[in-house]
Structures
1.
Amino acid sequence: MRAADGAELHGIVTGEGPVTVALVHGWTLDETCWAPVADRLAGVRVLRYDHRGHGRSAAVDPATMTIDQLADDLAAVLAQVAPEGPLVLAGHSMGGMTTMALAERHPEVAKRVRGLALVATAAGDLRGATFGFPPPVVRALRRREHALYESARWTRRAALSTHPRLLEPAMRTLLLGRNPSRSAVRTTTDVIAACRPTTVSGFLPTLEAHDRHRALAVYADLPVQVMVGTRDRLTPPRHARRIREGLPQADLTLFPDAGHMLPLERPDGVARRIAALVGAAVPA
């Protein structure tokens, strides 16, 4: 697949049906994080792809690592693989932010959307987030991060770590809830370990600047499912509640004891809610 500026994107299209479901992944992740949900969606065409700079998609200039660009990429991918017919969008974390930016930048595409799932995401208010860590620890890290991001040991590395298992304790603390499955731990750790360091740092500014509460109004007449884990440190439940203030018709689901990685931690529940959106989108 091709991004809006021609960058090569890795993608997968599976299944058949009158509705295309686009599963859009989060920051530092890739399309494999949606695989357990995709496997549970029957009778529907499912699109998964890796954002620019993520997974098997091309490395790109960090200057292009913005949520606006991701929205343009999503519009370009949909034009290639689903140029017609109803759409259901499901965005996890930064993927959810991408669907909000799509509404802003590509209203002609948003008009085809018949249902929206916003999974462990936020419409803004991320600047200064501590992600559950003590503020002094976060401030100490922030003082050092710019020097790290400019260093050769950061910019020349192909992956965050060649020893994924060493990251498991941090991944459990930061991204996963209570008693995650072994597969959820392994997939989360492997995907993030393989992420390019420049992708981590390149998207940080756009995440902090993200503010699309007003953009939610484009989806005000649609069925919307908002989902969050009660132990989500990155986008805790207050963000889901704020989204629902902008989309009062939305159904809000809090998954007890789940963390940020809902497509891996609670694939049954996430898939059921997306399937409900598909059912509502099927033309009579």
2.
Amino acid sequence: MKISKKRISVLFLAFLLICSAVLPILSCGGKPADTDTNKNAENQPGDNDVQNDGEKSNITAIPEPELPDIKFNGYKFRIINTKPDAVTWLLTQITASEETGDVFNDAVYRRNRIIEDRYDIEIFEIVANDPGDAKTKGQKSAKSGSDDYDLIFAYIGDSLSMAQAGLLYEVNSIPYIDLTKPWWDKDVVNDLSFSHRLYGVAGDLCFAHYSAVMPMFFNKKMLSNFGLESPYQLVRDGKWTLDKFADMSKGASVDLDGNGKWDQNDQYGFMSLNFLVYPSFMLSAGEKFVRKDADDIPYFAAGSPRFVDVYEKIVDILNAGDHRFFDADAAGNHRFQDTMFPGNQVLFWHELMNWSKILRDMESDFGIIPTPKYDEAQELYYSRVFNATMMAIPVTVSDIEREGVILEALCAESYKSVKPVYYDTMLKTKISRDEESGEMLDIIFSNRIYDMGYLYWESSVLSPYITMSKTGKKEVASYVEKNQSKASAAIDKAINALDVVS
């Protein structure tokens, strides 16, 4: 069915978010200075009650999508998605069979019924074992030319590989999808595009990209016991820096069993995982492995003078003494964290937001803050988004206008009715223990970073970096020399496959 596109004039409230002028980031290799980290009000994830000055605004209107009044005669809108809890660090639920009393589940259920009734469709979820399975099934279908799915939820990197194979629609080309609206993740739009083309997108239909953001949790009991100052106030004052974090965490480690061996039975000032913390701290300091030039074309950016300074500071802090815990046992188990932080063995814990669910029953109080910035001169706190699932639209979709109407409607309705439940009820009320954590969440979600380097080209960009950093080596020049040609080749391959100008 083809439909004509008509515009409906709407009055909508401009969303006011926490932000200000961003720290200029140095570029290297003679490339033009990029603009992909210049976060401003238009680039924020769409939190609908935060102004640029950090104060709450009075919401008087909610924007509406500009969509036609149309019915689709019972069309089954087919989404392939990962089964719940298959990926422990992501919130992947997009459907609900009934209302159960769980606030998030019930909000999802009502949203879907509203859109189904409005457009006379059925939202049908095909459950995959994991995001990789979803990608495999979606890719196989598209390659065969079969119209089996309207929407594929795959990992961010997988969306690029499918796009390079010519299997996905470019999102900006889909009628009725308006990526300037607040129900679309502006940071994905800005950070992961190629020459302003986008082949995977995150919107409020799913909250995986929110659950994959990386904050820092702190133990209030331990903070009090050590007589340390409030991290909340440090954040407000712009003084929550890598140096301050190092000073506060160093004195909190104790060999509890006195055996001289530092393991999961002892107490630490800081806890995370090697493959998470090193790149996360780089991004929170405002440094990216891959940047984009003035034409929105990516290039390998590691090795600038500031990149080197930031890297060396992070290596010094994270590899000095026994104040941090990164270890896994011989079997590769790295979930000691699940009991160590709730058990008052860790002062600061750096993990994905979705893991906050295990803290609901924690006896001691805890707080949530952003990852520390590089120094006080850095104006904003940046928060890394780890690998999440995003929406990809296969080229085999039979009616792309219908696709655009349904996706825009689902994300807009979710922004209105489900996101407040996730953000204000689940995170700010059910998990957070104080008003200050809610204030910090606004900061965390307002300045998120997606880095192409580790999301698209992990093997040539991220893995060598982690191998180098966790051993304490500082040979950044060697890292750049060994990996620049490989990374640049991978980037050029994507540029050429997507037919964008380099």
3.
Amino acid sequence: MKKFIINSFVILFIITFSGYAQNTDDAIRILDNQIGFGGRAIGMGGAYAAVANDYSAIYWNPAGLAQMRKMEVWLELSHIRYGNDISYPYSRNEGDKIYSSSSSQTVTKFNSIGFTFPVPTYRGSLVFSVGYQRIKDFEYANEFLGISDQGSDRLSFAGVDPDNPEDVYDFFGEDVEKEGYLTDEGSINQWSAAGAIDVTPNLSVGLGLNFWTGSSEYAQSYNQLDKFNYFNEYPADFDNYSEERTLFSKYSSFNAKLGSILRLGKLMRLSVGLESPQTFSVEEEYFLDSKLRFDDGFEDNFEEADAEESGIYKYKVKMPFRFSLGASLSLGTILLSGSAEYMDWTQVKFASDELKELNRSFATDYRETVKLRLGGEIGLPFLASQFRAGAIYDPTPLVDKDFDWDRKYLTMGYGLLIERIFKIDLAYVYGMWKQATFDDLTPEGTEEDVTYQKLLLTISFRY
């Protein structure tokens, strides 16, 4: 009888995990919650579209490259610290007790490298730039332990008759102890080439071509224990179920970014930016190892590698146009700037036929957002230094979420110019927001208060 249970479980195991992964979150996460790069830019909250006078203009606004009169070599490192306080809220028989835990993750990365080449012209400006930059990090950690009667979707079969011992047992309905640990690591990157020209004395335009790459490794350890021995009748004397899951994802795409900067005298600049639609190709490779144990010592474990499925799944995601506006005001040694970035997340679509039925969820579960950035810089010429501060308000694309779910960042930075050619820029980012995580193993989900910290060190050399 138990062998029948195991065999039936293996069948469901293969079917459910071969269809695992793809939902609207997998598409949204590719572009959602981008911070950008560049020590000076991030120190000013990323409100850089109308400033953009270093290599990072290739990301913020390629038209800004036209301001550069010297060759530039650019290098950048980043250090990220991700932390969250986790609430595991469901416990029917314990009076809705909240279980609390915390987790953290740190990582140091090489963040960008770039080269900028002005071309001598009779009048105006012609500048080209090439390079690589990380523009989004997937860093995440979640660790929880609690009591739930939600079981696991993995351990529930449709059409089960719990009164019939010949049926596979339904693991819903009684309290079990559930423990999980999740991590996600990786990034979305750009390999870029851009050029900019002055089309009039006061108007610059630029075009950037971006080849996007990226990867992430999502790992999950899960354990479900019959702590209170509610499951004690043969053949349903379940004791413990454990699972180790790893999902490797690769991303690739191509798009173009068009930007412009209009100079209104010496004090003010306005910018307009447009990013073309693009299609991301995603390839996922998954590995899974599970074990089911019973009170009498009987156990079996099965790995996805034992199944006939290849363990690889491919699909495509279409992203719509994105628009940006920016402005900056220069008052002597004081520089103020702001920008707004618009995206309609309801227009994101799966391009693969087998996933198109999910596309209606983009229109119902997501919304348009406008990301706001504000920043400023004060220069101290006698110290060859600049002090910076900024803020980012990044609304969640999910509908029906309150202000706590929106990402808020505060930034600060410092720049030092040495011998007029060597520059060091430091930036610090502190972010906070609320989010929830759930999947087929934990359908009740966890609630998390997230803190995000990032340090950037940029070194540039102009000659």
4.
Amino acid sequence: MKKTLDLGCGQNPRNPFNADEVFGVDIVKSNQKNILLADLVIEKIPFPDSTFDFVTAYDFIEHIPRLLYYKKKRTQPFIQLMNEVWRVLKPNGIFKAHTPAFPKQESFVDPTHVNFITEQTVNYFCGGEYTNLSKSYGFDGMFEKKVVRWDEEWDYHLIWELAAIK
């Protein structure tokens, strides 16, 4: 039985992998039992370790700040979110992100976009030359890069698909 989690899902969690069970997390309260309330800028994903076969984030990660001072402490919410995605994925589970990205102007137009993604951003989470640097930033997981490409329909969106290495 495959499970998927959609981050920043609103009232309609997406299920691009046709999982049997669909869950969501959003900052806005929902009456649906499968959608949990959490502010992922400052909170953990409210599910146990290795729960999901898939995690998706459509038009979401660009809203997660790279740096934040919270309760008088310097935090890195984007790094922590990637740790959380890795944590809740099963081994070889897939993370799919669909986000406006640099150099397209749409990544800058919305004033709530605070995290500017490039085709190279994903490399910090996939080992190689950035492994030591990403570890020093606090990233504890590891992903294998499966797909990094521009969306053909929404040409200003970058699509990532990463597999959790555990």
